[in-house]
TrEMBL record:
It comes from Palleronia sediminis. GO terms for molecular function: RNA nuclease activity. PANTHER family: SLR0755 PROTEIN (PTHR35458:SF2). This is NYN domain-containing protein. Residues 7-165 form the NYN domain.
Length: 182
């Protein structure tokens, strides 16, 4: 699937990867994730995309974002929008699809292989465009959760599908109790 001399870039849809790993009941160790893909090829960039609530005193994702920023990841963030849904529940919206897609297309001439950590079917046109530019695309997500976290059309479009659960031993650590966060 990977060639030692190929130039790699990782594109991590933070909230999507978090949800997939959580559904599989493990947490991602981002130090191990980066090391794993450095072994698989020449890792040029590891992007991590997430929206942040700016007005909160403490955000549970802030320590992770700070750590990633100092440990070889390129952080791409934007303010999340907070709203109340029709049932009166507080919701947060922060879609990073455009930012991820623009970065991937800009980097395409300099990479051989893009690794997309997302199961979002909205990325299918991006995968197709990267392939037309001569870039191989692997998608990391899971079909082992209920329901599966990867859109069928994204999985079919990708050159390779990597089951996140198969990476558990390499990049995972046991999940902390998330009940307090739900």
């Amino acid at each position: 699937m990977f060639y030692r001399d190929e130039r790699l870039a990782l594109f991590i849809d933070g909230s999507n990867l978090y949800a997939a790993a959580r559904n599989l009941n493990f947490d991602i160790d981002y130090k191990l994730l980066r090391e794993e893909f450095m072994r698989r090829g020449k890792l040029l960039r590891a992007f991590y995309y997430t929206a942040l609530l700016e007005n909160e005193e403490y955000s549970p994702i802030r320590p992770l974002v700070d750590w990633l920023n100092y440990n070889g990841y390129t952080l791409v963030t934007k303010p999340a929008k907070e709203y109340t849904d029709s049932q009166g529940r507080r919701r947060v919206k922060g879609n990073m699809d455009i930012e991820l897609s623009v970065d991937a297309m800009e980097l395409a001439p300099r990479i051989d292989h893009a690794v997309l950590f997302s199961g979002d079917g909205d990325f299918r046109p991006l995968v197709e465009a990267l392939q037309r530019a001569g870039v191989r695309v692997s998608v990391v997500s899971t079909i082992r959760s209920q329901p599966p976290m990867i859109a069928d059309e994204l999985r079919r479009q990708a050159d390779n599908f990597i089951e996140l659960d198969d990476l558990r031993e390499t990049i995972g650590r046991p999940a902390r109790d998330h009940a307090a966060n739900d």
